[in-house]
Design goal:
- This protein is α/β, with parallel strands linked by helices.
- Helices cover 48% and strands 13% of the residues.
- The chain is built from eight helices and five strands.
- It has a five-stranded parallel sheet with strand order 3-2-4-1-5, sandwiched between helices.
- α5 runs antiparallel to α6.
Protein backbone atom coordinates (compact mmCIF):
# COMPACT_ATOMS: atom_id res chain seq x y z
CA UNK A 1 0.00 0.00 0.00
CA UNK A 2 2.80 2.45 0.88
CA UNK A 3 4.42 1.90 -2.52
CA UNK A 4 1.15 2.50 -4.33
CA UNK A 5 0.55 5.65 -2.28
CA UNK A 6 4.06 6.88 -3.06
CA UNK A 7 3.43 6.38 -6.77
CA UNK A 8 0.00 8.06 -6.65
CA UNK A 9 1.22 11.12 -4.75
CA UNK A 10 4.29 11.27 -6.98
CA UNK A 11 2.04 11.35 -10.02
CA UNK A 12 0.04 14.20 -8.46
CA UNK A 13 3.21 16.23 -7.90
CA UNK A 14 4.75 15.27 -11.18
CA UNK A 15 7.57 13.29 -9.61
CA UNK A 16 8.09 9.63 -8.87
CA UNK A 17 8.35 8.07 -5.46
CA UNK A 18 7.07 10.88 -3.24
CA UNK A 19 4.74 9.99 -0.41
CA UNK A 20 1.98 12.20 0.97
CA UNK A 21 4.30 12.89 3.90
CA UNK A 22 7.03 14.01 1.47
CA UNK A 23 4.57 16.48 -0.04
CA UNK A 24 3.66 17.72 3.43
CA UNK A 25 7.31 18.00 4.50
CA UNK A 26 8.31 20.00 1.45
CA UNK A 27 5.29 22.28 1.74
CA UNK A 28 5.36 23.36 5.37
CA UNK A 29 5.86 22.55 9.03
CA UNK A 30 6.63 19.00 10.14
CA UNK A 31 3.51 18.71 12.33
CA UNK A 32 1.28 18.33 9.28
CA UNK A 33 -1.14 15.40 9.64
CA UNK A 34 -1.72 13.49 6.42
CA UNK A 35 -4.51 11.03 5.69
CA UNK A 36 -2.95 8.36 3.48
CA UNK A 37 -5.95 6.65 1.91
CA UNK A 38 -6.52 8.61 -1.28
CA UNK A 39 -5.01 9.87 -4.48
CA UNK A 40 -6.89 13.18 -4.15
CA UNK A 41 -5.10 15.70 -1.93
CA UNK A 42 -6.73 18.79 -0.45
CA UNK A 43 -4.49 21.45 1.08
CA UNK A 44 -5.44 24.02 3.69
CA UNK A 45 -3.55 27.17 4.64
CA UNK A 46 -3.96 30.05 7.08
CA UNK A 47 -2.26 33.41 6.67
CA UNK A 48 -2.15 34.49 10.32
CA UNK A 49 1.35 35.79 11.04
CA UNK A 50 2.48 35.25 7.43
CA UNK A 51 3.21 37.57 4.55
CA UNK A 52 1.53 37.19 1.20
CA UNK A 53 4.89 36.09 -0.27
CA UNK A 54 5.20 33.38 2.41
CA UNK A 55 1.74 32.02 1.63
CA UNK A 56 2.25 32.08 -2.13
CA UNK A 57 5.63 30.38 -1.68
CA UNK A 58 4.08 27.55 0.34
CA UNK A 59 1.29 27.16 -2.22
CA UNK A 60 3.79 26.98 -5.08
CA UNK A 61 6.02 24.51 -3.19
CA UNK A 62 2.98 22.23 -2.77
CA UNK A 63 2.03 22.55 -6.44
CA UNK A 64 -1.32 24.19 -5.68
CA UNK A 65 -3.18 25.24 -8.83
CA UNK A 66 -6.20 26.95 -7.26
CA UNK A 67 -6.62 28.78 -3.98
CA UNK A 68 -10.18 28.58 -2.67
CA UNK A 69 -10.89 31.41 -0.26
CA UNK A 70 -13.36 30.12 2.33
CA UNK A 71 -13.73 33.36 4.26
CA UNK A 72 -17.22 34.82 4.58
CA UNK A 73 -15.68 38.27 4.16
CA UNK A 74 -12.68 38.27 1.83
CA UNK A 75 -11.15 41.38 3.34
CA UNK A 76 -8.21 41.64 5.68
CA UNK A 77 -6.23 44.20 7.63
CA UNK A 78 -3.15 42.13 6.76
CA UNK A 79 -1.44 43.53 3.70
CA UNK A 80 -2.03 41.47 0.57
CA UNK A 81 -4.92 39.32 1.79
CA UNK A 82 -7.96 41.25 0.61
CA UNK A 83 -9.77 39.57 -2.26
CA UNK A 84 -8.74 41.77 -5.20
CA UNK A 85 -5.06 42.13 -4.34
CA UNK A 86 -4.74 38.48 -3.33
CA UNK A 87 -6.38 37.22 -6.53
CA UNK A 88 -4.18 39.47 -8.70
CA UNK A 89 -1.01 38.38 -6.89
CA UNK A 90 -1.94 34.70 -7.18
CA UNK A 91 -2.76 35.05 -10.87
CA UNK A 92 0.66 36.65 -11.46
CA UNK A 93 2.20 33.50 -9.92
CA UNK A 94 0.08 31.10 -12.01
CA UNK A 95 -2.41 30.19 -9.27
CA UNK A 96 -6.15 30.58 -9.79
CA UNK A 97 -8.35 32.20 -7.13
CA UNK A 98 -11.93 31.28 -6.25
CA UNK A 99 -13.96 32.84 -3.44
CA UNK A 100 -16.64 30.55 -2.00
CA UNK A 101 -18.31 32.97 0.40
CA UNK A 102 -21.03 30.54 1.51
CA UNK A 103 -18.28 28.29 2.96
CA UNK A 104 -17.22 31.06 5.34
CA UNK A 105 -18.03 31.02 9.01
CA UNK A 106 -21.05 33.08 10.09
CA UNK A 107 -20.33 36.01 12.41
CA UNK A 108 -21.25 34.03 15.54
CA UNK A 109 -18.81 31.30 14.53
CA UNK A 110 -16.01 33.83 13.94
CA UNK A 111 -16.66 35.36 17.35
CA UNK A 112 -16.55 31.93 19.03
CA UNK A 113 -13.27 31.10 17.25
CA UNK A 114 -11.71 34.42 18.33
CA UNK A 115 -12.61 33.58 21.93
CA UNK A 116 -11.05 30.12 21.63
CA UNK A 117 -14.40 28.30 21.79
CA UNK A 118 -13.60 25.90 18.98
CA UNK A 119 -16.39 23.43 19.81
CA UNK A 120 -18.97 26.20 19.63
CA UNK A 121 -17.51 27.46 16.34
CA UNK A 122 -17.65 23.93 14.89
CA UNK A 123 -21.31 23.52 15.92
CA UNK A 124 -22.27 26.89 14.41
CA UNK A 125 -20.40 26.08 11.21
CA UNK A 126 -21.90 22.58 10.96
CA UNK A 127 -25.38 24.14 11.11
CA UNK A 128 -24.33 26.70 8.51
CA UNK A 129 -23.20 23.92 6.16
CA UNK A 130 -26.77 22.59 6.07
CA UNK A 131 -27.94 25.73 4.27
CA UNK A 132 -28.58 25.35 0.51
CA UNK A 133 -25.98 27.94 -0.56
CA UNK A 134 -23.33 26.25 1.57
CA UNK A 135 -24.21 22.83 0.19
CA UNK A 136 -23.93 24.11 -3.40
CA UNK A 137 -20.54 25.67 -2.76
CA UNK A 138 -19.31 22.59 -0.88
CA UNK A 139 -20.19 20.57 -3.99
CA UNK A 140 -18.29 23.12 -6.08
CA UNK A 141 -15.25 22.78 -3.79
CA UNK A 142 -15.43 18.98 -3.99
CA UNK A 143 -15.65 19.02 -7.79
CA UNK A 144 -12.79 21.50 -8.15
CA UNK A 145 -10.57 19.62 -5.69
CA UNK A 146 -11.32 16.39 -7.53
CA UNK A 147 -9.71 17.68 -10.71
CA UNK A 148 -7.11 20.24 -9.54
CA UNK A 149 -4.64 20.72 -6.69
CA UNK A 150 -6.64 23.00 -4.39
CA UNK A 151 -5.85 24.75 -1.13
CA UNK A 152 -8.51 26.30 1.10
CA UNK A 153 -7.51 29.61 2.66
CA UNK A 154 -8.66 31.26 5.86
CA UNK A 155 -7.01 33.42 8.53
CA UNK A 156 -6.09 31.08 11.40
CA UNK A 157 -2.57 29.67 11.25
CA UNK A 158 -3.61 26.61 13.27
CA UNK A 159 -6.05 24.66 11.13
CA UNK A 160 -7.48 22.90 14.19
CA UNK A 161 -9.06 26.17 15.38
CA UNK A 162 -10.47 27.08 11.98
CA UNK A 163 -13.64 26.15 10.14
CA UNK A 164 -11.57 25.01 7.16
CA UNK A 165 -10.68 21.95 9.27
CA UNK A 166 -14.37 21.03 9.37
CA UNK A 167 -14.59 21.24 5.57
CA UNK A 168 -11.36 19.27 5.15
CA UNK A 169 -12.55 16.57 7.58
CA UNK A 170 -15.84 16.20 5.70
CA UNK A 171 -14.11 15.89 2.34
CA UNK A 172 -11.67 13.37 3.81
CA UNK A 173 -14.35 11.27 5.52
CA UNK A 174 -17.05 11.41 2.85
CA UNK A 175 -15.08 11.78 -0.36
CA UNK A 176 -11.69 10.19 0.33
CA UNK A 177 -9.47 13.25 0.16
CA UNK A 178 -6.06 13.23 1.80
CA UNK A 179 -5.59 16.49 3.73
CA UNK A 180 -2.34 18.42 4.04
CA UNK A 181 -2.29 21.51 6.23
CA UNK A 182 0.38 23.88 4.93
Amino acid sequence: MAGLLSWRVGVLRGGAGETAQDVASSAGPSHIPVMQTSTKTLFTIGYEGATQADVIGRLKAAGVETLVDVRAIAASRRAGFSKTLLSQSLRAEGIDYVHLRALGTPKAGREAARKGRVGEMRAIFADHLEEPASQLQRAELKELAGRKRVAMLCFEADHAGCHRAVLAEQLADEDGFAVVNL
